[in-house]
Write a structure and sequence with these properties.
Elements lengths: L4 E2 L14 H10 L4 E4 L12 H5 L7 E2 L2 E10 L11 H4 L4 E5 L10 H13 L5 E2 L11 H11 L3 E4 L11 H14 L3 E4 L12 H10 L11 H13 L6
Parallel strand pairs: 1-2, 2-4, 4-5, 5-6, 7-8
Antiparallel strand pairs: 3-4
Helix pairs in contact: 4-5, 5-6
């Protein structure tokens, strides 16, 4: 399976990542990545940039080292209602909006509360894709999330970083989630979640899991840059108008 797109990467602007956009793009070019998401954390993450950073993304070049750049954000779910830590007027200008749960930004709750928060964020018209549901930090009903992914046509990530040896406890959850994705046939993305340039375009653990459980190549959106761009264009066509 050839992965052409890495939508989940961080730069030094996230505060706990250690490479520049140029360094990440160069690494992407060397790994054959055609489309690169720059998705630094939204402001509720300690060390993350403020809103002015995201308001200025239009100055970035559309391409670096032959790699097309999608400036965006990894927004944080901040409560049980699935609200995000970025105003709509900013979300509406992002070329890519990833959304996930993070310990520092979300208060935690019961399995039902956590799952509802995740699903409500999936239903947000400004959300493009959901990330790392397999992390063990919060109990989630992974089957319901897989079902909603298929129902809403919202891609959910198999996160390569979550499966790395320095992370603990995610393999079982990620495997169960991947099996549910096979069952419900929702769209999948693989993400490196790179916080240093040498992990950009690195999907080996995620690909091992995809092959193990039998997720089809057709389900994996980022096997094609064109498929990703078409999907994102459709999402923006279906957003409510801001007056």
């Amino acid at each position: 399976m050839n992965i052409q797109v890495d939508l989940h990467t961080h730069t030094i602007s996230s505060g706990h990542a250690y490479s520049t956009l140029s360094e990440n793009a160069l690494a992407a070019s060397h790994r054959g990545i055609k489309l690169l998401g720059m998705t630094d954390h939204a402001p509720s993450m300690p060390g993350a940039p403020n809103l002015y950073h995201f308001g200025n993304l239009a100055i970035l070049p559309e391409e670096l080292y032959g790699v097309r750049i999608l400036p965006g954000v990894e927004a944080n779910i901040i409560n049980h209602d699935g609200e995000l830590d970025m105003p709509i007027r900013y979300l509406s200008k992002m070329k890519l909006v990833l959304v996930g749960l993070h310990v520092i930004c979300y208060p935690g709750g019961t399995t039902e509360q956590n799952t509802q928060a995740y699903i409500k964020a999936m239903e947000n018209p400004y959300t493009d894709m959901m990330v790392h549901p397999g992390r063990p930090d919060f109990e989630l009903d992974l089957e319901r999330i897989a079902h909603m992914s298929a129902k809403l046509n919202i891609p959910v990530e198999i996160n390569n970083s979550s499966l790395a040896k320095e992370k603990k406890g995610a393999w079982g959850n990620c495997r169960r989630f991947a099996q549910y994705m096979v069952q419900y046939k929702g769209p999948v993305i693989l993400g490196s979640d790179a916080h240093f340039w040498d992990r950009v375009g690195e999907f080996s653990h995620a690909l091992d899991l995809v092959h193990e459980v039998g997720i089809s190549e057709q389900q994996v959106l980022n096997t094609s840059a064109e498929r990703v761009l078409d999907y994102l264009a459709t999402r923006r066509e279906n957003r409510p108008n801001i007056t």
